[in-house]
Design brief:
Layout (H helix, E strand, L loop, with lengths): L6 H15 L13 E4 L11 H17 L8 E4 L5 H10 L4 H5 L2 H10 L6 H15 L5 E4 L4 H18 L2 H11 L11 E4 L33 H10 L16 H12 L6 H8 L4 H28 L1 H30 L6
Parallel strand pairs: 1-2, 3-4
């Protein structure tokens, strides 16, 4: 993610990335690598402010580190710093049928909101860039939320189509031999690693809509870098309902479920039953200050570490440079394989 990272980005994705990097490798014969990318190229599919893009790119990288991503275990880099992402995206665009892209739900939704005559081509083709992001690193498992399943399925379809068109038969083997590369298929077909349930954070102004940085109403989300006073004000103003008590599983109370989900997510050591026993008989006026306190307490150490990282510009630049170098080494091999498969000459 880019832009002002919010609580949904952190609880739904980044915190789980930290957990993934710390899981021991079950097979010592297989080398596992973690790459985390600040997707600045994706951020320009809609109109953007150049100054804001620059700042949000650095802020996102610093927040990855502040949240617990460790450069010793995982590589953090900026997408545009590895040119293979843009080039492979173009190659894959040329083999992806238009109708595959036109049926993408997120494109339909965003184009409808913006007006189909005003959106750029990048909004239509950005799922192909997303596929390139995955395929460059020969990823066999990709952590995705349910809302990204369709895009991962597109990546799998592109792999099958590309490999079928270009990666078989004697002519392919001869091209590989001449280029001095192995004659195996260019891409691995990735499998979805569905994120664990429980961290789907919804809007503070509508419990049926996902929390989003694109929502023009800033009060609809808690940004990870919001000061405590801002967090308390947003929670005080957030949408609730007229029911008595607070409960999880009433389908008529999406805001109650969302606020309880947030309350539980920022207190991961507490059980659902323990939280239910604490808040079930509370009014919203009693619960909201407790919720705000819990959010502030959880985010405070992240915000403190973030400030220290941003103050050390040399450290952040070094992490991103080292990450880009490591990513480029892997991505370039995959890109060369795709080039050869398609018949391009390699630069000598």
């Amino acid at each position: 993610p880019t832009g002002a990272l919010h609580l949904g980005n952190y609880l739904g994705a980044i915190r789980q990335w930290v957990e993934f990097q710390n899981v021991p490798n079950p097979d010592p014969l297989v080398t596992e690598e973690n790459f985390f990318c600040v997707v600045d190229l994706h951020a320009i599919t809609m109109p953007h402010d150049p100054n804001e893009l620059y700042e949000s790119t650095l802020a996102s990288a610093a927040l990855y580190l502040a949240a617990g991503i460790e450069p010793e275990k995982s590589k953090v880099f900026v997408q545009s710093h590895v040119s293979a992402h843009a080039e492979l995206s173009w190659l894959l665009n040329c083999v992806t049928p238009m109708n595959w892209l036109e049926r993408m739900i997120q494109f339909k939704d965003k184009a409808k909101k913006a007006g189909s005559g005003t959106v750029g081509a990048g909004l239509l083709t950005y799922p192909v860039l997303m596929a390139a992001d995955i395929l460059l690193y020969q990823a066999d498992r990709v952590p995705v939320g349910e809302d990204q399943r369709q895009h991962l399925e597109l990546a799998r379809d592109i792999v099958r189509r590309f490999n079928d068109l270009y990666c078989k038969g004697n002519p392919f083997k001869k091209r590989c031999k001449k280029a001095g590369i192995p004659s195996r298929k260019s891409f691995v077909e990735p499998e979805a690693m569905i994120m664990k349930e429980g961290a789907r954070i919804m809007s503070l102004s509508d419990g049926t809509s996902k929390m989003s940085k694109s929502d023009p109403n800033d009060n609809s989300r808690i940004n990870v870098l919001d000061p405590p006073k801002v967090i308390r004000d947003k929670i005080k103003k957030c949408k609730t309902d007229a029911f008595e008590g607070i409960e999880w599983d009433n389908p008529d109370r999406p805001e109650a479920k969302n606020l309880l989900t947030i309350f539980a997510a920022v207190q991961p050591d507490r059980s659902r039953q323990e939280i239910t026993d604490q808040v079930k008989d509370m009014s919203w006026g009693e619960f909201k200050p407790i919720l705000a306190d819990a959010i502030c307490a959880h985010l405070e150490p992240i915000q403190t570490k973030y400030a220290a990282i941003r103050a050390d510009e040399e450290y952040l630049n070094t992490v991103l440079r080292d990450g880009a170098t490591a990513a480029d080494a892997v991505a370039s091999r995959t890109l060369d394989s795709a080039r050869v498969a398609m018949g391009f000459t390699l630069r000598s």
